[in-house]
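Cross-posted from the bioinformatics board.
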Amino acid sequence: MPGQILTISSHVVHGYVGNRGMTFPLQVMGWNVDALNTTNYSNHPGYGSFSGEIEKPQLIFDVLKGLQDIGNGIENYDILITGYLPNYEIITSVKNMMDDLSDTKKPVIVMDPILGDNGKLYLSEAVVPVYKEILASGKIDVITPNQFEFEYFTGVKITDETTLKQAITKFKSLYNVKHIVISSVNFDDSMYCVGYVDDLILIPIEEIPVKFFGCGDLFTALMAHNFVKYDFEHALKDSVEKLSKVLQRTVEHEPGVKIIKDLRIIQSKDIYLQ
Amino acid sequence: MEKSVLTISSHVIHGYVGNKAIVFPLQIKGWEVDNLNTVNYSNHTGYGIFKGSVISNELLKKLLDSPPSSFLITGYLPNSSVVDQLKDYLLNNHRVYLLDPILGDEGQLYVDPSCVDSYRELLNEVKVDIITPNHFELELLTDSKIQDHDQLILAIENLKRKIKFVVITSYQVGEFIYCLVAAQGNESIKGFKIPIIDGYFTGVGDLFTALLIDKLYDSYYTDLENKDALESLCKAVNQVLSIMEKVLHHTFNTGLSKNNGKHPNMGTLEIGKFELNLIEAVPLFESTEENFEVFDFHELKLD
């Protein structure tokens, strides 16, 4: 019997970001994936233009209640993934739902605390205190921020291994999340994926000079699957390796292109199963 | 032609109907699938309770503005303004179009009654390439009561004048469901005889549509030269029915074991135990088995 995942993130009609980037890989890896969509957009903003809407907070509240009403509340899932939560109201709905979980019956919660990237916030600052409360609540098992987000939550700028360790120490003192994964960190002219449970794990990543969209979503999906399957270090290494293979395949499909709008999510079916 | 498709149908968070039953099988077969969701529900209505909302006209207009694909599927369109808007869109954006005219089944409407007229108008004004009504929907679209052999032929001929591939997905007589197919350029109507699985299933029509596009792509659209349309359609439908039979048996058996050996009651939470086993069915989607006998229409004795 397949396991059950609830993933709360964005929906686009075309392309592979948010739930559209996570659902197929997870389904291929054998999961029943229930996708709760926080947006309804034509495509992601990287296309230059897009249209659509953020879902009404009331709708998110309603469908969460709807799932509960049919005996399928979030405590029944094996894994809960949260990704793009676009505003204060929606993040608060998700927080309230997590607060209601008992410690004895809860899913593994993997949170990609999407706030921004490359020095820029995507969301209003009003969401930050809610995220901080969630991170301090002890409900989150794995967090997968990017470097900007991790720096934002800790207030520590990461410029080398020492400052990275300081940032992690700060994070540990402020919040209560056992497994930290920073999807990519740049220092000393190198790129690493960072993991921390009791010790620091640094995995070098080969840098590809191309701008991709949806990498973080795919990485979070791979990490969620691997986390319940392998020990932490193995899970991390496998996720990095698979993501890198998908990126490689994507680049081979569009050689020389510097901005690639969508990963080859569908054509990488074999990679997820390796 | 590229294997890319836009599918416009319902979204449920939990379970497999509408786009949740269409998107994954096509992706597994290597299709680039864009999905436009006409509703956003927690689960399908067969549970007796659900929560969620229907797409607004304004949002639909915005979302139709996404990059084009070679094929188009429309499934659950909840009201006539959605159907009308799509009609206007299709007048200027032709693709190979599979219309699953979801209206209802066994005499009961699933959608707003105003959809019937809107679909009739759409059929008059827009080029549809493939259509997959059930018996009840065929009656509504052709505005005729169909109770015998002759009435059935008339209704199928009526659709075939405008539509290249006509598939009547279910026409029940006694212990059997008949699936009937016809294609332009060929006088005859062919049929398949399917034993009824005595269970209640949801998402069956949606999965059927997804698989039909995939199999018809292989048997017809990959290489249009020297293709006999009816022969290609028979092959595709036979493959689809062969896969469906296995998926439904698997679904039914796991459902029974979850429900203490009992059949589910419609409109209760028991229905949830009989959601299509879509993830487990992955190896089946590749199958090209043709396990059903193809009959000429007159051999089926449908009176």
